[in-house]
Amino acid sequence: MNQIVLIGFMGAGKTTVGNLLAEKMGCPQYDFDQLIVDKIGMSIAEYFDQYGDAAFRDIETAVLAEVDTLKGVLSTGGGIVLKDKNRTLLKKMPYVVYLKADLSELIQRVTHDEENVRPLADSKTPAEIEAIYRPRVPLYEESARIIIETTGKTPEEIVTEILKQV
Ligand code: S3P
Question: Is 41 labelled a binding residue?
């Protein structure tokens, strides 16, 4: 396999696992949030503030279309599955891996991540985060060919499981 795409909710470990996976495979990692920040020249939080969610989703879609044929590990943002167009593209890609974690673990991670400011999760209650999470689960499930349960596992264990399945 020459390309693996990681999808999943905020805090699922797409960037951390993607880094390690790329290292093990000896290939580049493309982190969507970073590609978007490079494109927009400001932080994602600032962009959401100034231009809103819809404009951000258009940029995310443009980035996916730009990198969909690249070789390497693609770590997407948690909202990549929201647009039909993106899901259609993901379904055509051979190794789309959904990193699935328990909601309580995701909430714990996104509410304690000081390095990564997430406009959709920042200062939200657990119930508000759950309201974002629930409708997305079927979208991740329909977009992925491989589902990895990650709760309680280390990034190394998750990478080993992914490599067994691709
Ligand atoms: C988002 C997830 C974030 C980032 C943006 C929106 C989302 O990426 O793209 O804040 O809608 O779930 P991570 O999943 O890498 O945190």
Answer: no
